[in-house]
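Q: Convert this sequence to structure tokens.
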Amino acid sequence: MLAGAIAAIGMAAIMPAGASETTKDGAATVVRAAVDLPADHPLVAEGWKAFAEAAEAESRGTLEFRVFVNGAVIGSARSLEGLSRGEVDMGFLAPASYPDSFPRATFLTDLAMVGEDGVAAAAAMTELILLHCPACRDEYREQNVVFLGTYSSAPYVLIAKNLLADVESLKMRRVRTPGSLWDRWVRAIGAFPAANGMEPGEALESGAADAVVDTVLSLQDPKLWHAANAVVTVPLGAYRGASAFTVNRDYWAGLTDEQRAALLGAAPAGVVTTTLAYAQQAAYVLDVSRERGLDVREPEPSLRAAVDAFVNDDAMLSSDAATLAGGHERAARLADTYRALYGKYVALLEPLEAPAEKISVIGREIYGKLNPATFGREADIELGTTVEPDVSVGGGVTN
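A:
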């Protein structure tokens, strides 16, 4: 089946919200998904492919996916509006792009530097939202969509003209970063955030920045790798704030319990496969960078310690972000619960090598606790009172 797992770039008509399209023989319900990314992107080529295949299999052929890429159907500027109105049934959403609609989801992006294990971090963030933060789920409900999970993208690293592998070498340097979280870390180690008016490669080449914090994958940009001479793989986190497999709420309600169970059962495959695809691509890019002559090194102990100290300090959380999350106390509770969940998943997943084993653990620990007959359908928040968090993570957040 999988009629469109990287398939269609056009559509004859857009159906109204809640309407179910079936295939010509009437055997399957079509899931129209829009992902505003290219077909070769890890989320599309690996993550959505794995999710769609698993969902079609688990639904016993009653679901068939058509995935539209490169902004077809709704485009990036209208991703929330299109999903909310049901112009597509599912799709990719970056909640932090809509801070007024998703204040807590926006705050959660401030936890990007917590944890180096991408799969454990993606699992922790997904469990936090689905099982421990009713107010987080409420944000999705108010936008008429359902959150099914996130992923961890390629890690952020330090890219520079000269090797800057310890704290002392970075002091008083200008560092271009991808956002305010890393700006705060830069200040904490005695450096200065550089103005972000230029692209990373341009900033490094022109001397406007002595170093840049960016993802490993940014080294594929010729201007950046031409300007750089050194890469320090200091653990500066990764983006984990997406709603990778977002469902229109009306469409979700129109599915059968079995079809909703199939989507929930497929989500762990999407979470794990996307994250591992990013990790594999990042490793490849670092290998190529070494071949091109870049000095790729691990950080000195002082630099790693500076990251650890920052991540474990509440100073990591900006006052503005804490306000978005409902106040500093509640924000700190969210952060503490995430840290505990991350530790839980490191312990559960680190001993496992096979992706299928990781998928199984995440399915058991998170999605197996969701009731497909009620999840994402009730007007109030179901899980805040019906699911008790594992005591090993120090209690859930019920703000």
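The chain has 16 helices and twelve strands.
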